[in-house]
Design brief:
This protein is α/β, with parallel strands linked by helices and 257 residues long. The protein has eleven helices and ten strands. The structure holds octanoyl-coenzyme A. It is an enzyme of class 4 (lyase). Keywords: Fatty acid metabolism, Lipid metabolism, Lyase.
Length: 257
């Protein structure tokens, strides 16, 4: 497999790709070189027929403590505008396969935003989320202001963005920002990814697509899109197999066709 400098890629089992952000000395501070590697690994996993879901994690101490401030601090408006700085930092949200974030320690700034781009967030009890950009004289630039409003509502999103306060895993769970808190968060995320991989992959991709559509569409349009997508699944072998297996009281053998 490809050797990377800023990330590690492993295959805990044939159906799951595990990507680990690996700049421990900088608390996984995010940089353009890191994202070039991350994007490559993500799209390779997305294209690999054997992989059904992806887990993204960091270290015990930090999922990611944000964009690399040392790399950013001398940038000028003309650079960031001309080169569209951060434009290729959100490629993750274009993936068709589910991505599960396994968050331990700091998920701050771009780190929090990266977790929010994932489809499901699991957190260890040590996780801390926040958007501290306000303390640096800026605001979130990786989608935090928008995705947080959907995830936790306006008042809480506004509080995080305007105060920079960090919230604990417990608070994030109460707020509905994450699915749940668990010890051994990577192991649990891999288990969940393995479970998702055992389903019919066409239905999994359709499920991700319709849930994500709720961000973009009006309720009426979203309901219509869901219904049509549901209808479309009756053209798959997996629907025939899944329903036949239920009727015959046996386990479905999905072929992803
Ligand atoms: N950038 C660069 N280096 C960092 C960063 C960072 N974001 N965070 C930590 N580091 C480095 C420290 O400088 C330090 O390096 P060194 O050993 O060379 O001095 C090392 O990591 C360890 O950090 P600390 O000594 O500070 O560790 P502490 O345990 O004392 O503190 C904290 C941990 C509280 C997490 C602290 O490091 C901190 O406040 N970090 C900065 C958090 C922050 O402000 N993040 C937001 C950055 S701005 C941003 O993310 C913009 C988003 C852009 C969009 C992204 C789209 C995906």
């Amino acid at each position: 497999s490809t050797q990377y400098e800023h990330i590690l890629t492993t295959r805990p089992n044939p159906s799951v790709a595990l990507i680990t952000l690996n700049r421990p000395k900088a608390l996984n501070a995010l940089s353009t070189p890191l994202f070039l590697e991350l994007n490559k690994a993500l799209f390779e996993a997305d294209a690999d027929q054997a992989i059904g879901a992806i887990v993204l994690t960091g270290s015990e101490k930090a999922f990611a403590a944000g964009a690399d401030i040392k790399e950013m601090k001398d940038k000028e408006f003309s650079d960031v505008y001309k080169n569209n700085f951060l434009a290729n930092w959100s490629e993750l949200s274009r993936l068709r396969k589910p991505v599960i974030a396994a968050v331990s320690g700091y998920a701050l700034g771009g780190g929090c935003e990266l977790a929010l781009m994932c489809d499901i967030i699991l957190a260890s009890p040590t996780a801390k989320f926040g958007q501290p950009e306000i303390n640096l004289g800026v605001i979130p630039g990786g989608g935090g202001s928008q995705r947080l409003v959907h995830a936790i509502g306006k008042s809480r999103a506004m509080e995080l963005v305007l105060t920079g306060r960090m919230v604990s895993a417990q608070e994030a769970e109460q707020w509905g920002m994450i699915s749940r808190i668990t010890d051994n968060v990577v192991e649990e995320a891999v288990k969940m990814a393995t479970d998702i991989s055992s389903k019919g992959q066409i239905a999994v991709q359709a499920g991700k697509e319709v849930v994500n559509a709720a961000y973009e569409l009006s309720l009426a349009e979203g309901l219509r899109f869901e219904r049509r997508t549901f209808h479309g699944l009756f053209a798959t072998k997996d629907q025939k197999e899944g329903m036949a297996a239920f009727a015959e009281k046996r386990k479905a053998e999905f072929t992803h066709l």
